[in-house]
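User: I'm putting together notes for a lab meeting next week and I want to include a structural view of one of the chains we've been expressing. I don't have a solved structure, so I'd like a prediction I can at least talk through. The sequence is below, exactly as it appears in our construct file.
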Amino acid sequence: MVIFLFRWLALGALLLGLGAPAARAQVPAPPSLGGPPAAAPALPGSPRRLDDFLQVAYGTSPLLRSLGNQVAQNRLDSLRRKAQNGLQIAGIGAAVVSPSITNGSGEQVLGYDQAVSNGGNYASFAQATKPVLNRFQLRTDYQILGSQGQVLRNTGRLSALDLRRTVTDQFLTAYAAQLQLDFSEQLLAQLRVQDRQLRQLVDAGIFKQTQYLSFYLSVRTQEVTVEQNRLGYRRELGALRYLCGVADTALVAVEAPAPPPLRQLAGLGSIVQRQYTLDSLRYGLDRRAVDASYRPKLSAVLDAGIQSSQPGLLALGHSAGLGAGFLLALPIFDGHQRQLQYQRIDLDEQSRRGYRSFATVQRQQQYDQLLGLIRASEALSARIREQLRVAEALVGAARQQLATGDVAILDYLNLVTSYRTLQFSLTQAEADRLRSRFALDYLAE
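Assistant: Thanks for the context. Below is the predicted structure for the 445-residue chain, given as structure tokens.
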């Protein structure tokens, strides 16, 4: 692919030399990182800037919307827990018949003992319960719900950061494809101008017809390359719109993204590292939840209604009453499950520490590497610009000699190819630097 690219650069570079003025006072600027391709006009509302694509992606992402709903559900769970701690009233009704069968001697042969069943149970009453002396349990439950809300909110920020990274990477890929399309279209336009000039030189007998036919073939090859680059850009732009949920198929130019400022590496307060801090808090709350489950549970109970062992109206009418008391649940022995739960939590905490330590080293290494890549890209760009000045001077001198036939077309083409290759390399170096700057910016969140 690289050899083929250099080939059409070489064949098309001739246009730059012959079509440009004889001398230039300044070095020509490299291809702009934001030059629009020749394409259909943008549809109304079609995003072009990186910020616009990100805004659409944030608004259409079902994952972010789902996480937002989970945060709202967490608030409802907190209200629900508050209601559970309040007064609970329930209506209870019962009509249970316990028949018995006796023989001729009056002995019972089938049925429950009357001391147990009293013949049946007929009841209709209301019961009110209220947990008491459960402040530790209630506080622990609220803290667990609050921790879950913090985890959900941080997960939402982490998901938004991942979406931003994915969309930005695809945007830069589409932008690089657009630059290649711009470059090939500019090269084709210059080749066509050069083609007309070479025909005049062939008619004047300065160059042979066979030399011109080779150049003519390069023009046709470049036309195919332009179409291939246009398809490549359309594919990458479509992938970007697919990620963002943009229902648009028009081939429009994206705008050059502004490089983010250099920022310091975010420490333990970063979005990625914060999840480990929240996990540590959650494990501490899990231990409190285990302790709370082994505390005595006391509830006050009040009921009022009708309850009788006889179904008759008279019996029911004389069976109205009320009752009050307390319900106490006290764990005594469960096979040392409490210690086993502690051990599980301790193992989770060990895993969390390992993940956090690894992530800290990994993020620092990535940050240092990206800083080195940015400095290397800047040094490479400066070196390419210096080489461009030399290449421009050589192309200008050869251009003057080409009009008199003192330089062969292939020799001149090689010079122009080198010049255009340097311009393309400069564009690639700037694009790589831009990608590294965005990657570095993610680590500052």
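A couple of points you could mention at the meeting. The longest helix spans residues 135-203. The first strand starts at residue 88 and ends at 97.

User: Perfect, that's what I needed.
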